[in-house]
Amino acid sequence: MTPKYKDLPTRIICSVICALIIVHQSTTMSFLELIRTPNYPYGIISSALIGLSIAWLVRLITKKLDRHLSWDDHIPIRLGVQILFGVVAVFIITVLGVTLYFLGAGIFTDAKKPIWIVNTPWFSFLAFPVLLLIVFANCYYFVYYMIVKQKAATTTNQRDLNKNDGVKEKELFYGRPFSDVVYASSTADSTEAITKDGKSFPWSYGIKRGLVKLPAGEYIDAGRSELVRLDNIKRSEYLNVEKTKMRVYLIVPEDKAVDFSRNHTAIHKTLLRAYL
What we know:
The chain is an alpha+beta fold and 276 residues long. The chain has two domains: 8-169, no CATH class; 176-275, CATH 2.40.50.1020. The chain has seven helices and ten strands. The radius of gyration is 38 Å and the shape is rod-shaped.
C-alpha cells in the first residue's frame, strides 16, 4: 500500500508552529523584545520554509520507501532504512544547507580563523530542535500510513461484509434459497414462513420487507398480514358480484384460503389478472 499523503495544509501549519518555536528558542530575548526586532518576520518565514522543505523531503523519502520497502512486509528493515534516510540523511542535508547559507552570507569567510558549522551558535541552539523536527516528521508519516491502512482495511472488510450479508439475505433462508418460501403470515406476535415442502420457520423480515427480498414478480401480498407465491395458488374464486374481492386456495399449506382485494394496488390487479 502506498498512501498519497495529501497533507499540504498540515505541513504548512506544522512548519509555522515549528518556526515559532525555533525562533524563540534561538535567542535569549524576551517575547516582547523579539517581536519588535526588524528581522523577526524574516526569521519566522525563513524557518517555516526550512521546516516545510524538511517535511517535503521526509515525505518524498517515505513515499519512495513505501513503494519499494513496505511497512507491512519488512518492518525491521524498513525501520532501519527509514531512520537512516528519513532522519540521519535529512539532518545531514539540513546541516549542509545551513552551511552553504552561512558561506553565502560570508559568516565563515569574515572570521579571523576557520569556523566549522558544529562550532556555531546555530548548531549549539538549533541542531537538536531541528533533529526533533525531523524525527517528528517521520513519526507523523508513520502514523499517517497506519491510519490510511486501517481505513482501507475497514472499508474492505465492510465491503466484504455487505457483500456476504447481501448473498446471505437474498439467497439463503435457514440454509435454503429464499425462493423456497411459498407462504408467510403475520400476527401481532410473530411472522411465520412456510416453504414448498411444508416446513415452517420464523420470518423476521415482516411481510413488506420480506416481499422486497423475494424474487420480483413471483409473490403477492394480501395487505400486511399474508404473502403468497403465485405458483402456490391452486384455484381461486370471486367473493362478490363486482369481482373486486377474490379468495385463493393454496397448494401449501393444503387448501389454505387467502382473501385478496383488487382494490389494494395496481400491482395486485396486474398480477392476479395475469395469473388467474
